[in-house]
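WARN retry 2 of 3 for item q-0093 after timeout on previous attempt; input resubmitted unchanged.
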Amino acid sequence: MADLIPFDDRDGVIWFDGEMVPWRDAKLHVLSHALHYASCVFEGERAYSGRIFKLSEHTERLFDSAAQLDMEIPFTPAQIDAACNELIKRQDIVDGYVRPVAWRGSEMMGVSAQVAKTHVAIATWPWPNLFGDDRLDSGIRMKTSKWRRPAPNTAPVKAKAAGLYMICTLSRHSVEPEGYDDALMLDWRGQVAESTGANIFLVIKGVIHTPTPDCFLDGITRRTVMDLARKRGHEVIERVIMPEDLGDADEVFLTGTAAEVTPVGEIDEHNYQVGPITRQLMDDYEAAVRMGD
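OK item q-0093 returned
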């Protein structure tokens, strides 16, 4: 951890409300509404070979998330796409991560925020696989979290909203000291939902199963990998998955922009091999992102 570079002390520029500003000058006020009341949405995107994969889909989701939080982004999707593309060129990003974020500012302090302005920033930096390349051969270790995904009538579960990730941070913090890489999250009903930042798939007797996304994000990478699997002739079933179904799986893997396709080697008392279907989809996804949209 000692060699980590703080994210507020880096060289380069950040796109901030329509302008390229020096990285260290991209700041917001301590009384910004987003800091106190979680009125913030964001996206996670990856650039491969200098091209952002599924950029328009990510931008569309950013606007959808903002609308769910009753926020109006003061730019068009085309402007955000153009800013993302310009930024990775300015930052000389070949393979890296792109983070657009929109939040309510400091014009109004209180739960209600009708007159607070919506600000937008975009940053990018080099970033390898979320769990590290050494985990791609053996699979990551996971443990079920005590925190659960909320019901759709309690939170905007289809939005990529900052506030929904508090339970993810708590979940990761609860398992990492025990040597686990990530936490498995159940939903409010006790059904398998996802990891703290990626969707989950189980391979059972050659068939790919994944939870129905009714209380968590239907990830862009999730949909991409499902399409790749079907092109290979694999059956993909979206259904209710219970914790006891984990014992029936031969392979388990995660999908997400940061995680890409990451094999899972262990969940609680269950152990899995990094099998042929997982490896094939890892290769197919790598080929897809290098080809572009």
